[in-house]
């Protein structure tokens, strides 16, 4: 096969994320609600009976199913299931930047408005409780940040003889910044805090 044939095979393809078919894909909704004429963000506390991250604070969302035509549909579906509201009660769903991490996950965040929070009836099998935080508080609060360092530990049978440097190879030590927001007795951190920081940055940049 010559180079012209190779280019012909590739020139019309749309680039994507390499290996995306092996990634676990999820979608979440950042719900905006109005309380006493002030905008709040709504958060969930994960049920204490859940196997994964019980008691953690998160936004409504979950894994994209085969029946979801797109991530937006998943975010809305998961929100209706977790908060017990109708999809018609979720307005103006708008995409944020999606997250790709080294643990093999892609998360598609959206922001939207919940029109009537009085209709919320949390699904107790997934949601311990819900609470809200005023947007004004989040816009005027600098979160705490801490580094988490990752160390490289090759397996015992790693073929050091195949790489330049062998056992003395200079592995790059990576780290992530964990973000913490505190509001009254609640602590928002992890992926939820990362998405929240992204949204706050977008709001501040557009003022």
Automatic annotation (TrEMBL):
- Read off the InterPro entries from this record: CoAse, NUDIX_hydrolase-like_dom_sf, NUDIX_hydrolase_dom
Cofactor(s) needed: Mn(2+); Mg(2+)
PROSITE patterns membership: NUDIX
Task: Tell me the superkingdom of the source.
Answer: Bacteria
**Gene Ontology molecular function, alphabetical:** 8-oxo-7,8-dihydrodeoxyguanosine triphosphate pyrophosphatase activity
Under the heading CDD domains, the entry gives: NUDIX_CoAse_Nudt7
UniProt KW keywords: Hydrolase, Magnesium, Manganese, Metal-binding
Organism of origin: Oceanobacillus longus
Q: What is this protein called?
A: NUDIX hydrolase
Pfam families named in the record: NUDIX
Q: Which Gene3D superfamilies match?
A: Nucleoside Triphosphate Pyrophosphohydrolase (3.90.79.10)
| Annotated EC | 3.6.1.55
Keyword Transmembrane helix in the entry? The reply is no
Major enzyme class: hydrolase
Q: Does the keyword rRNA processing apply?
A: no
Nudix hydrolase domain span? 23-156
């Amino acid at each position: 096969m010559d180079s012209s044939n190779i280019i012909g095979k590739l020139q019309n393809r749309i680039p994507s994320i390499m290996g995306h078919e092996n990634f676990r894909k999820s979608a979440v909704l950042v719900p905006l609600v109005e309380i006493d004429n002030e905008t709040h963000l709504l958060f969930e506390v994960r049920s204490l009976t859940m196997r994964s991250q019980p008691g953690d604070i998160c936004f409504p969302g979950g894994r994209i199913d085969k029946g979801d035509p797109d991530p937006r549909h998943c975010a809305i579906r998961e929100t209706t299931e977790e908060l017990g509201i109708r999809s018609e009660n979720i307005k103006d769903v708008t995409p944020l930047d999606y997250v790709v991490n080294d643990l093999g996950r892609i998360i598609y965040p959206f922001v939207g408005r919940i029109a009537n929070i009085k209709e919320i009836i949390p699904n107790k099998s997934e949601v311990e409780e819900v609470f809200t935080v005023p947007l004004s508080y989040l816009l005027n609060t600098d979160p705490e940040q801490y580094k988490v360092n990752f160390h490289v530990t090759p397996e015992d049978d790693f073929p050091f003889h195949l790489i330049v440097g062998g056992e003395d190879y200079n592995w790059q030590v990576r780290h992530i910044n964990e973000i913490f927001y505190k509001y009254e007795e609640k602590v928002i951190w992890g992926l939820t805090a990362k998405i929240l920081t992204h949204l706050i940055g977008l709001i501040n940049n557009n003022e």
